[in-house]
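Q: What would this chain look like folded?
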Amino acid sequence: MDGDTLHPIGELARRTGLTVKTIRFYSDRGIVTPTDRSPAGYRLYDVDAVARLDLVRTLRTLGLDLPAIRKIVDRELSLPEVAAAHAEALAAQMRVLRLRHAVLTVVAERGLTPEENDLMHQLARLSEDERRDLVGDFLGTVFDGLGADPAFAGVMRSMTPELPDAPEAEQARAWVEWAELALDPDFCAGVRRTAEDLAAERAQGGTTGPRPDFTAAVRDLAAPALEAGVDPASPRAEPIVAALADHYARLCGRPDDAELRRRLLLRLESANDPRRERHLRLLAVINGWPAPESLAPVLDWSVEALRARTRR
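A: My prediction, written as structure tokens:
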């Protein structure tokens, strides 16, 4: 094809490797317009049409839509501008795909019911604002009305998932599972009870400054007995139970008696909810934190030891 000759659409197709139908499609949309028409009405193109079609084909392989391509070939927009916008759109699509992949993985592994499956897909389709609202609703359910104790500010931060803009597949999957827990009324009620217990303990103890974490104190007191193989129902466990009760009594600002030990057992049982540990592990994955230590064995031992000595 030389620069002075006009060529029919068939020859243009042979030159570019595109079909006649495709070139006609681009021509109808004003992306590659014919230079003239033959006496019989057939479209004729000059050599510039080849360059335009080559550019169009390249842009289509990058996934650009036709309106953007037309602006580029007409020089209304630069390719870098369009490429930047398209890259941003692709990043958003990748985030959605990661969440959908997470949903499919959960469905495949857990054998969900149709209702649970539907919930999973709804969670995966949440926008960033909707995810933020879900987190806010969960934290509100747990902490609203418990006062302005500064201790709760740190607790709330430790319970806030922050999904990155470009999450890894594992983070996306953890987010979907976290959201499922956050929408579980029974789980939320249990976490709320723990927050209320903490507020009551701090009020009764008359302390507003930092204080040791309850489960960490239980670990420090009971772990040696667990490691030594002490039977929680045996007399050898009695000093450990007494130490746990003494710690809790000082935490609450009240004497060690039958009522306090009953409350301590309830607190331990609540802390030993498997969903609580799962919740902490999911938060660690989502936020990129180190995996938390499992306290389940120590809590199991402590609950059994208290039950053996406590009447409901």
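The first helix runs from residue 9 to 16.
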